[in-house]
Design goal:
single chain; about 60% helix; two-stranded antiparallel ribbon; about 260 residues; disordered C terminus; mainly alpha
Length: about 260
């Protein structure tokens, strides 16, 4: 049994889409790189919004408990958090097509206070709250840094097209070009540090360097997507205890009927 079969058997991601190809060109053209870029970008926007909303409604509901008005809000907040978990699980399909383990329902309860206790004792609610508050900030930082650097390298490849339209002013003199570094008095004066693009040749060199860095950074991009979706899986999904049994039942066995042609 190979590694993918073992991972599939025990319900862990097999990274079918987020594969790490040894060939960097194949890696660039693979669906995993672009799926990772979209997943990280959407995660930045959605995570910031959910962090603000979940934190606000949870704190507000807890503060209003002293006047009893917060109790219904706490129930609503718990169901809202579960709804956010469902959305995160759906977004994860962009990088894990096989999806995540089945999410268990909230325990049944009758009456106001039993329902309040049930929804907040629910594992998905508790882990969802931790994911959207405590883990949101480090994930946002990771996603933003990795995605921004990837976009910067991607944009560097197109420098030969637009470098000549960037205005620069050095000691009152106007010129056009793209500065990678520190040029207090111009690209050809004392104190200049870095690389200045002001010709087609220098732009071509920048594009080649940008392509090389992009090819290398694609692996970091996909790795970051793996980290993010693994965090989602671990915190808000967990391991499916019946994953092994489900895989065995779904896979063909020695008693399977032969297919007819």
């Amino acid at each position: 049994m190979n590694t993918d079969d073992m991972a599939s058997l025990y319900g862990t991601p097999i990274w079918e889409r987020l594969r790490m190809y040894r060939n960097p060109i194949r890696m660039l053209l693979s669906a995993g790189v672009w799926a990772s870029a979209w997943y990280l970008l959407s995660s930045i926007v959605i995570s910031i919004a959910l962090f603000a909303v979940v934190t606000s409604i949870t704190i507000t509901s807890a503060a209003l408990v002293i006047i009893w008005a917060g109790l219904p809000l706490l129930i609503g907040s718990a169901y809202f958090i579960r709804g956010c978990v469902v959305m995160e699980r759906g977004r994860a399909r962009a990088v894990i097509p096989e999806g995540l383990p089945v999410m268990p329902p909230v325990g049944s309860a009758e009456g106001f206070f039993p329902t309040l206790k049930a929804v907040w004792k629910d594992r998905i609610t508790q882990r969802g709250l931790a994911h959207f508050t405590l883990l949101a900030v480090p994930l946002i930082v990771l996603d933003t840094v990795v995605w921004a650097i990837w976009v910067a390298f991607l944009g560097t490849i197109t420098v030969p097209i637009w470098y000549r339209f960037i205005p620069q002013t050095f000691d009152g003199q106007q010129m056009h070009g793209l500065a990678f570094g520190y040029f207090p008095h111009g690209p050809h004066h004392k104190g200049a540090i870095g690389y200045f693009v002001d010709s087609d040749l220098s732009a071509a060199v920048a594009a080649v360097v940008g392509l090389a860095l992009l090819l290398a950074w694609n692996y970091v991009l996909v790795a970051a997507a793996r980290v993010h979706v693994s965090t989602v899986r671990t915190v808000v999904a967990g391991r499916d205890p019946m994953a092994a049994a489900r895989r065995v039942l779904d896979s063909p066995g020695p008693l399977s009927s032969p297919t007819t042609t």
